[in-house]
């Protein structure tokens, strides 16, 4: 009976920790060239959902572009680097794009930049609402490489399922 109670306790703790982890962690895949060379397209990131971010963090934010939301292939998240927080000096790379009070990032806003100079980021959009930042990357996972996924081959060199 004590063994069953112990097993039940372990299973309950496992279930609770899984629910907590799912609410606090997410995996996001970087697509496009905006974070290259740091994160080539297909790089998966483990993201901690949190409101606490620091300058220099790689952050995930809600997608704000013009693609329709019913597009099943549209990513709802962007991966960028947090360049400035409220009260920080406005980076010179975005100073001509955004309005600032005394050259500082306003309350409730942030500046995000891609690692590539060709990134679409605060240099194009201006400030990003802090509320759009979903979390920060805490670990780089494996890179998805579609060319590395090979179909099964039979003994005669045929590719794909048997017809």
Please give a structural write-up.
The chain is an alpha+beta fold and 163 residues long. The protein has one domain: Umud Fragment, subunit A (Ribbon), CATH 2.10.109.10. 17% of the residues lie in helices and 26% in strands. The chain has helices at residues 2-24, 122-125; strands at residues 25-29, 43-49, 58-62, 77-84, 109-113, 128-129, 133-143. It has a seven-stranded antiparallel beta sheet. The protein is elongated and about 70 Å long. The termini are far apart.
Keywords:
7-stranded antiparallel sheet; Umud Fragment, subunit A; alpha+beta; 26% strand; 7 strands; disordered C terminus; 163 residues
Which runs of at least 5 residues are low in confidence (pLDDT < 50)? 148-163
Give the amount of beta strand, in percent: 25-35%
State Rg.
21 Å
Number of domains: 1
Instruction: Name the helicity range.
Output: 10-25%
Instruction: Profile the largest sheet.
Output: 7 strands, antiparallel
| Assigned CATH architecture | Ribbon
Chain oligomer state? single chain
In short:
This protein is of the alpha+beta class and 163 residues long. The protein has helices spanning 2-24, 122-125, and strands spanning 25-29, 43-49, 58-62, 77-84, 109-113, 128-129, 133-143. The longest helix has 23 residues, at 2-24.
